[in-house]
Amino acid sequence: MISIQNLSVEFSAKSLFDRINYVINRKDKIALVGKNGAGKSTMLKIIAGLQKPTSGSVSVPQDTTIGYLPQHMTLSDNNTVIGEVRTAFCHLDKLRAEYDKMNADLNSRTDYESDDYHRLIGSMTTLSERISMEESENAEAEIEKTLTGLGFSRADFNRQTSEFSGGWRMRIELAKLLLRRPDVLLLDEPTNHLDIESIQWLESFLTTKANAVVLVSHDRAFIDNVTNRTIEISLGKIYDYSVNYSKYVVLRRERLEQQMRAFQNQQKQIQETEDFIERFRYKATKSVQVQSRIKQLAKIQRIEVDEVDTSHLNLRFPPAPRSGDYPVIAENLGKAYGSHVVFDNAAFTIKRGEKVAFVGKNGEGKSTLVKCIMNEIPYTGTLKIGHNVKIGYFAQNQAQLLDETQTVFDTIDKVAVGDIRTKIRDILGAFMFGGEASEKKVKVLSGGEKTRLAMIRLLLEPVNLLILDEPTNHLDMNTKDILKQAIKDFNGTVIVVSHDREFLDGLVEKVYEFGGGRVKECLGGIYEFLEKKKLTSLAELEKNVPVSSSAGNVEQQGGKKKDVAPVELSPRKLSYAEQREQSKILRRAEKKVADAEAEIAAIEKEISEVEAQIALGNIENAIFENHANLQKKLENAMSVWELANMELDGLSK
Q: Which domain holds residue 631?
C-alpha cells in the first residue's frame, strides 16, 4: 500500500537513515522501535508528508488516507468536545463528490470486461459503504463510544475544549482520528496521556477496527497486544520482523548470535586458508593446491556482522539517607476545587523502603495527591511527612519545563552546586550525552532525550523518597528497563504514578487506586490489582438492585418514615437469553482456570528442566538467573490461578 524506497535522511552531515526500504501493507500493525533519537518520530513525519527526506521516496496510492497523531501539537480550537469531534465527519462532502465523479466515469465507459472497469466498481462499492456508514445514525453512537472509551464522561461532551488540559486535548484529537478510520494510522506515543482503562480500550479498537497502523510506543504491553510486525531502527538501518515485540526480542537475539557464530566460523576458515597459502606459497610441489586455495579465498562471500548500538544509560540513584519508619502518613485527607471533590477521607501509610503505585483514570487525583505531599497546594485532613524525609520529585511535565535555548551542559551546570559541578561531564556521559551531545541545544532533543536530561536533576543530591509522575513517557524500552532496575536497587521509598503495566510489574508491592473520590489500597503487584479489579466489576454486575418497596423504612408524604416489614421476593426466573449469557460467563471463567493450570504446568516443566541442568553441573550465571525468573513467573501464574478460581466459585454459587 505504502512503499518506502531508498530513503535517506541527514542532519548536520550525520546520517539518520541510510537507503531504507520497506512496504506498509493493508492491515499491518507495525511497531517502530529503537533508541531515543534513532529517528522513529522523523519516520512517521516523512510517511505523513510533513517532512521531506534527503533522498529516496515514499509512494502513497492516490486514494489512500493517512491519519497522524504527533507527540506534541498546538491546539487552538474553540468548540465543545462533541462539536469538535463531529468535525471528524466534515470530509463527507469530499467523499460524495468523489463518488459522483466515479459514477460519471462509470456511465461513460464501455470496457465492461476490463480489469480497470472492475476495479472502479470495487472502489465505488467501498466508497459507498463508507459514506453509508458515516452518514448513518450510528455515527453519533460511535462518537459517544469513542469518547467514553478514551475516558470522557457524558458530562464532558458539552464542555468547551479550552477547559481541558493538553493531555485531554490530545485525546480529543485521537478520537477524531479514530472516527475518520483512515487507511493508515500513524500514532506517536498515543498512550502517554491515557490511563490504564483507556489504553486497554484503545488496544481493543486498534486490533478489531483499525486498518493499517504504524505506531511508536514505549509501552511494551500495549505494542505486544496491538502489533503483528516490528521494525527496528538502529544506526541508520532497519530490521524488519513479522512478529510482535516480545517475539522480536527473542528473534533479534538469535539472529545476532547465529550471525556471530557464522562470522567466527568463516574467520577461522579464512585464517586456516591464508596460513596454508603462506606456508606452501614457495613450494613447487604444492603450487596447484596453493592456487586452488587462492581462488577459493577470492570466492568467499564475506559475512558481515550487523553493527549494534551498544550505547546505554548508566543509572544508579545515590544511596538514600535513612528516614523515619513512615515517610508518608495520611488521615482523612481530602482535596476539592469548589464543589468538585477530587478525593476525600483518604487514609494510608507508606513505610520506609516501600515501592508503591498510584493508578486510576486521569483527573481522579493522582498528581493532585502528589502535589499535596509536595506541599504545593492546600488540602483538608492530616498529612504527615516523616522524620528526615528528603523528597526527589520528577513531575509529569518536567521535560517540557526545560529551557529550549540552553545547551545540555548549561542546563545541568545551572542547577549543579558544590563538588558535583566537577563531575557534570561524567554524569552527562552516563546518560548518553557524552562528547558533542553535551553541546546540543535542548530544542533539537527528542522526547526521550529531554526526559533523560530532566531525570539527571534527581541525581544531583541524595534523596530518600522518590516521587515519579509518569517517568517512562518518551523513554525507549532499554532505558525503561534500566530505570526500573535502578528503582528496584534504590534503598529508599518510591511512589510511582504510571499507566505502564509492564514497567510497574515486579516493581511495586502495593497499588493505590484513585476513583470516585476515593483512594483504595490494594496489596500486591499491578497485574494482581487488575485481576482483582476485573473480579470486583463482575461482582458489581452480579448484585441484585434492591427494590424500594422492600425497604425496611419507607418515606411517607410530609417526610416521616413508617416501618414496613420487608417483602420477601422469590427469585426471578431467568429468561433464555439471560441463561445463555450466564452460561457463557461460566464457560469463560472455567476456561480461565484451565488456561491458568496449563500455564502453571508448563512453567513447572521448564523449572524441572533447568534444575536437571543444574544437577548435571551446569552452574552458569544465566542458568540461575533463568531459574529465578521462572520461579517469579510461577508465583504470578499461581496468583492468577487463585483469582480465576475465586471468580469461578463466585459464579458457581
A: 573-653
